[in-house]
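batch job 7 of whatever, protein = Iron-sulfur cluster assembly protein CyaY
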Amino acid sequence: MNNTEFHELVDEKLQLLEDMIDDSGADIEPVITGNVLTLEFENRSQIVINKQEPMHEIWLASKSGGFHFSYVDEKWTCSKTGMEFIEMVKEECQKHADEEIEWV
C-alpha cells in the first residue's frame, strides 16, 4: 500500500467512526487536528487516534493503554488484541463515557 491508499483507507474509517458517534447521540466531541482525531468526553477524558503514515498504522491511546492497528485482510486489526479498530473504539468509548452507548 502506498501513502495515498493508506490515507484514503484511514480517512474512510475515521469518517465512519465520526458518523457512528453522531448517530449514537453520545456526548462525545470528535476534534481533528492534522493527522490526529481526539474524542473528547464530558468527563474530560480523551481517546486519541493517530495516523502513523511511516508505518501505515492507526494508533489509539485511551485509558486502557496504547494500541496499534495494521491493515490486514481488508480490516484494521490490533497487533496486541486482534480486535478490529471500530469494535475497540466502541468498547473504549463506553469505558470513557462511563455509560452505555447505543451504537447504530
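notes: The first helix runs from residue 3 to 24.
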